[in-house]
Amino acid sequence: MTSNLPSADDSNGRLAHRDPWAPETSDANSHANGEAKASPTTQPGVTRPDPKSPAAISLRAFLLGGAFGVSLCGILVALERQPSFWRPPFFLLTLAVFHFLEYYITATYNPTAATVSAFLLSQNGSAYNVAHTLAFLECVLHIVYFFPSSAAAAPRDDLIISPRTLWLGLGFGMIVTGQATRTMAMVHAGSNFNHLVQVKRKQGHVLVTDGVYAWLRHPSYFGFWCWGLGTQVVLGNWICLVGYAVVLWRFFSGRIEKEEELLIEFFGDEYVQYRKRTPVGIPFIP
Questions:
Q1: Residue 266: which residues within 8 A CB-CB, separation 6 or more?
Q2: Which of 111, 195, 215, 260 is deepest in the core (most CB within 10 A)?
Q3: How many other CB atoms sit within 10 Å of the CB of residue 76?
Q4: Residue 284: exposed, middle, or buried by beta-carbon count in 10 A (0-12, 13-18, 19+)?
Q5: At what angle do helices 238-267 and 269-277 cross, to 10 degrees?
Q6: In the beta sheet, which residues pair with residue 54?
Q7: pLDDT (tens digit per residue) in 69-102
Q8: C-alpha dihedral (28, 128, 184, 196), degrees to nearest 10
Q9: 63: Cβ–Cβ under 8 A, 6 or more apart, which residues?
Q10: d(Cα 117, Cα 102) in Å, to the nearest integer?
């Protein structure tokens, strides 16, 4: 659902905020009151980079496209020569798709917010990048040093569907479901979607409860949570799966609690009733 508050969340498109692990920026807060304020770090006479630089945007799109192509080739080569090594390039492929869609959907449905930062390549903070790096390394170490043949093991003949196949199916399903849910949330929020924090309700904005928001009140959060855990299931990363689950739950639990305080302030009983009938979808977050 969307609302009249520019939103980085799908949460009704009502509130704009940073994505998982992303630190809030002074620029985001400088527009919270509808006024553009000079950044305290900007020096007089210094020209700030153009946030919509065609060169910067095209370069990032090119690199993501290249990463997608190289990863796809890596998967095909691995399946042909060393089946146990298809997972690392698959992880890189899912990351390339995710970050490309973040910008592409923003540019298509909310072009005014289609800046370089919409790719979310460096705006999510160091913890985000460290988490994905550790996940990649755990997968590689798992394959090379601990269970080099586990990913390529043949399924048992006495089973119709092997447990490994079921586990991979679960992971692929979570990735597709998470990405699709997040994308639909961004599309439905349209111009209300924004990756920056904005906490002031704009005139004429209303709480929207249809579309994907009729089923989930924070579909963008649910989508990222489902997508993130799904990648670790596919990679077979037991350590990072637990780590992702704990970190994402703590992040979204705290973020949703604070955000909904503002939403109740903005929409009153209308949001209270909506919250009662619509779940978040993330376990143990009411």
A1: 3, 5, 14, 201
A2: 195
A3: 12
A4: exposed
A5: 150
A6: none
A7: 999 999 999 999 988 899 999 999 999 999 999 9
A8: 0
A9: none
A10: 10
Among residues 246, 245, 238, which one has the least CA distance to residue 141?
238
Q: What is the pTM of this model?
A: 0.82
Query: What is the DSSP code string of the chain?
Result: ---SS-BSS-STTT-B---TTPPP-HHHHHTTTS-----TTPPTTPPPPPTT-HHHHHHHHHHHHHHHHHHHHHHHHHHHH-GGGSHHHHHHHHHHHHHHHHHHHHHHH-GGG--GGGG-SSTT-HHHHHHHHHHHHHHHHIIIII-TTGGGPPPPTT-SS-HHHHHHHHHHHHHHHHHHHHHHHHHHHGGGB-SS-B-SPPTT------GGGGT-SSHHHHHHHHHHHHHHHHHT-HHHHHHHHHHHHHHHHHHHHHHHHHHHHHHTHHHHHHHHH----STT--
Which regions of the chain are under pLDDT 70? Answer: 1-46, 147-160, 194, 196-199, 202-205
Look up residue 44 and give its amino acid. Answer: P
